[in-house]
Amino acid sequence: MSRIRLPLINPSQITPEEVWASRRTWLKQAGLGALALGAGGLPVSAALAGTGPYAGRRDPKYVVTDKLTSEKDVSSYNNFYEFGSGKQDPAKYAGKMQTQPWSVVVEGEVAKPRTFDIDDLLKLAPLEERVYRMRCVEAWSMVIPWEGYSLSTLLKQVEPTSKAKYVEFVTAVQPKNMPGFYEHIIDWPYVEGLRIDEAMHPLTFLVFGVYGKKLPNPNGAPVKVSVPWKYGFKSGKSLVKIRLVEQRPLTSWVKIAPTEYGFFANVNPNVPHPRWSQATERRIGDGFFAPRVKTLMFNGYGDQVASMYSGMDLRRNF
Ligand code: MTE
Questions:
Q1: Which pick of 28, 89, 249, 306 has the fewest CB atoms within 10 Å?
Q2: Is residue 67 classed exposed, middle or buried when 0-12, 13-18 and 19+ CB atoms within 10 A define those classes?
């Protein structure tokens, strides 16, 4: 976490007023002012993990009770190939990424294409805190308190047309600030995609913060997407463009190794990666010799998402 940038000014100065105001109002209404100070002894599903300026309200429907991964591990053990292929590279190098000003273009099969700057996005809806299990295709996992709102909130703003069958996510390219750019592992920019129903699903989260604070650069500042029932590579970091399209986009990992990484990438313990099992996972922070955790179908979110895949052969559509 050596590169997490602590705010040099009072957070209220860098946080849109709405974020503060909505959170204060909610705390007041709920009579939960003490929560913001990190009151102990509360059930994990009720207590906010984050107490910083980006800490949103929690809806128990979107909180798992697994032990949280430490804030340090969340931001110092990462995959972010723009900064190199080592897990510590993003923490070492992502501090150079320029995240201000920042805007996200939302275009394609929509009635109202629009460019949102980051403050516009933060004003669209009050932030919520969601504790998500995140499972990497490399068979490690974390439990992370993200701060954001459902991606559908943003997509509804631009009014997708009936031709919008898929959503493509395009992420930032800053060659001068991204040492991994020159490694040519990926044909930049990093591109990911979802089917429109997956993108509109309430679990699909647009993330601006973690642990109550602004998203650190290694995690994909200033805005990323989080899709907790899919392998982590579906969750594009540092988004600059969201395109609604008719054809399935050719996504980065499918382009690199189509026999190893599928478009759907739903977490599935019954379908091994060609080179390793997906039946269990290592929880980051538990120590290398801790027993491995059993991987759950759809990463444990089956009740909420399985119906989107009924009738589909998940071995073929991996
Ligand atoms: N987004 C971009 N732009 N570049 C990347 O290399 N890596 C993906 C995904 N999003 C990646 C990305 C992969 S492989 C994973 S596992 C997750 O981010 C890791 O997220 P985390 O490091 O915040 O846990």
A1: 28
A2: exposed
For the chain, domains (ranges, CATH) are 11-309 (3.90.420.10)
The 10s digit of each residue's pLDDT in 150-200 is 999 999 999 999 999 999 999 999 999 999 999 988 999 999 999 999 999
Q: Which of 221, 77, 198 is nearest to 147 (CA)?
A: 221
Buried-exposed string 281-303: b where 16+ CB fall within 10 A, e elsewhere: bbbbbeeeeeeebebbbbbbbee
- Phi first, then psi, for residue 200 (nearest 5°) are -85, -10
Tokens (6 digits) for 202: 């309430």
What residues flank ligand 1, with Cβ below 6 Å? 78-82, 134, 136, 171, 190, 219, 232-233, 235-238
Q: Residue 189: name the closest of 81, 72, 272 by CA.
A: 81
139 φ/ψ sector (left φ>0, alpha ψ -120 to 50, else beta): left
Could you tell me if 112 and 120 are in contact, meaning their C-beta atoms sit under 8 angstroms apart?
no
Cβ atoms within 10 Å, residue 70: 14
Helix (H, G, I), strand (E, B) or coil at 33: helix
CA of 219 to the centre of ligand 1 (A): 8
Computed from CA positions of residues 273, 278, 284, 289, in that sequence, does the dihedral angle turn out positive or negative?
negative
DSSP states of 74-104: HHHS---GGG-SSTTHHHHHGGG---SS-EE
- Alpha-carbon distance of 206 to 300, in angstroms, equals 20
Could you tell me which residues come within 8 angstroms of residue 3 by beta carbon, excluding any fewer than 6 positions away? 75, 90, 91, 92, 93, 94, 95, 216, 217, 218
**pTM for the model:** 0.87
pLDDT, tens digit, 9 for 90 and up, residues 193-227: 999 999 999 999 999 999 999 999 999 999 999 99
If one residue of 187, 233, 282 were mutated to test the ligand 1 pocket, choosing by the most ligand atoms within 8 A of its CB, it would be 233
Residue type, position 233, single letter = F
